[in-house]
Amino acid sequence: MRFEKLRLLGFKSFVEPTEFIIEGGLTGVVGPNGCGKSNLVEALRWVMGESSYKNMRASGMDDVIFSGSGGRPSRNTAEVSLFLDNADRTAPAAFNQDDTLQVTRRIEREAGSAYKINGRDARAKDVQLLFADQSTGARSPSMVGQGRIGELIQAKPQARRALLEEAAGISGLHSRRHDAELR
Ligand code: ATP
Ligand code: MG
After folding, report:
1. Which residues bind ATP (predicted)?
2. N or C of the chain: less Cβ packing under 10 Å?
3. Quick count: other Cβ atoms within 10 Å of Cβ 74?
4. Taking the CB of residue 106, how many other CB atoms lie within 10 A of it?
5. 146 lines ligand 1 (CB under 6 A)
């Protein structure tokens, strides 16, 4: 699967509907300080299942909703959709009949957030596993936040092992085994 497009509606500073086409070979996003580069990366992490608002530079998950600026009123919802190209048919079996996958996460003020995969309700865990199986996701080593490099270098062996497992695309298996053992 390949990231194709990211669509933001009312997420952080992206109050106007915004679509980013993610073309092959994209190597950088440039722009002046405060223009929304980090917000963009956070939107990508959020739609892939980030559960910690602290990792979103927020003091509560509702902080990802546009809070108003320059005379524009705040919003009550935010929505991010990630479109995935599945031409290579590597999506999980449940979705593999489709050429494109659309993963959407929507949050409403004081009401929490919900996910959909191709228009159908999904659990956070379904979304997290979908990306973990592709060796990516909100916490994966493919998304290294500012200031995390030092953390990776100083990590204890256990944490470093978790990192290698994520890179190898097997962290989803651990999560499934944990569930199976609980049953
Ligand atoms: P830098 O180059 O300094 O790293 P950046 O391009 O990464 O900048 P961001 O951190 O993505 O910039 O964007 C910061 C801007 O987003 C600030 O102006 C901040 O006010 C705005 N912002 C963050 N959260 C919200 C929100 N919930 N509602 C409205 N604006 C927000
Ligand atoms: Mg930044």
Report:
1. 32-39
2. C
3. 12
4. 18
5. no
Q: pLDDT of 39-59, one tens digit each?
A: 999 999 999 999 999 889 999
Give the pLDDT band of residue 179 (cuts 50, 70, 90). Answer: confident
32 assigned to a ligand binding site: yes
Pick 177 or 32 by higher pLDDT: 32
Structural tokens at position 120: 């159908």
Residue 4, classed as helix, strand or coil, is strand
What number of residues does the chain have? 183
Q: Return the CATH superfamily for domain 2-134.
A: P-loop containing nucleotide triphosphate hydrolases (3.40.50.300)
**In Å, what is the CA distance from 100 to each residue of 46, 63, 95, 106, 114?**
20, 30, 9, 19, 20
For ligand 1, pick from 12, 20, 45 the residue to mutate: most ligand atoms within 8 Å of CB: 12
Tokens of residue 85, six digits: 């190209």
Q: From residue 108, give the alpha-carbon distance in Å to each of 44, 77, 94, 122.
A: 18, 4, 28, 16
Per DSSP, the three-state class of 119 is coil
